[in-house]
TrEMBL record:
It comes from the Bacteria. PANTHER family: COV-LIKE PROTEIN 1, PROTEIN LIKE COV 2. It holds the Pfam family DUF502. The chain crosses the membrane at residues 12-32, 52-73. This is DUF502 domain-containing protein. InterPro entries: COV1-like. Keywords: Membrane, Transmembrane, Transmembrane helix. The keyword Membrane applies.
Length: 218
């Protein structure tokens, strides 16, 4: 009986390892779709009769709005309008905090902005050999207080493993060593605590899951 229970447990864990990443991804996408449908769908219902409304219009409208904004930003007048609205946003204390944080976060995905975040480095945290992977976010401290700008420093972002978030450090350049890794591979290595770094073949991954014995201690 114990052997059957152990076999059942290993089989369950094997299935969980295979299905959990897919399930979590689907749940997040569905959640985002529901939010877009609730917000934009209500606006569409305000514009058209309810009987004309088809579920999913809110999601489609959201995609179209994003595409339209991306295309219109090539026009000078649209860029000026967004710049003016941003000026208004940063004048309100609480709104400025939220908006600034979201703006800086999304700018990491804008490849046109040549940000220093695109540089993965190895950071020595002490006089010994303790090191961690980080990402340089700033090298120019012009306009900053002297306590920050003094010395040859860089700002390094250190992501947390298996958590959302991280922290930043002001580090002497002498303790920062560039590494020959793309940001994607370095980030994957850091957030998985060194477990994963490169993309593996999908068939190979599921073959490993099928042949593994999760939870088997001997």
């Amino acid at each position: 009986m114990d052997a059957r229970l152990r076999l059942l447990g290993r089989t369950f864990l094997r299935g969980l390892v295979a299905i959990l990443p897919i399930a979590v991804t689907i749940v997040i996408l569905v959640w985002l779709g529901d939010k877009a449908e609730a917000i934009l769908g209500a606006f569409i219902k305000f514009l058209i009769p309810n009987e004309w409304y088809i579920p999913g219009m809110g999601v489609i409208a959201g995609i179209l709005v994003v595409l339209a904004v991306g295309a219109l930003l090539k026009m000078w007048i649209v860029r000026r309008a967004f710049a003016y609205s941003e000026t208004l946003m940063v004048r309100v204390p609480l709104v400025r905090l939220v908006y600034g944080s979201v703006r800086d976060l999304t700018s990491f995905f804008d490849k046109s902005k040549k940000r220093e975040f695109n540089k993965a480095v190895l950071v020595t945290l002490s006089e010994g050999e303790v090191q961690t992977i980080g990402f340089v976010t700033r090298e120019d401290f012009t306009g900053m207080p002297e306590e920050i700008s003094a010395g040859d420093k860089v700002t390094v972002y250190i992501p947390w493993s298996y958590q959302v978030g991280g922290f930043h450090l002001l580090v002497p350049k002498s303790r920062v060593q560039p590494i020959d890794l793309s940001v994607d591979r370095a980030m994957r290595f850091a957030v998985t605590a060194g477990v994963s770094m490169s993309e593996e073949n999908h068939e190979d991954r599921f073959e490993k899951i099928a042949s593994s014995e999760p939870g088997d201690e001997g």
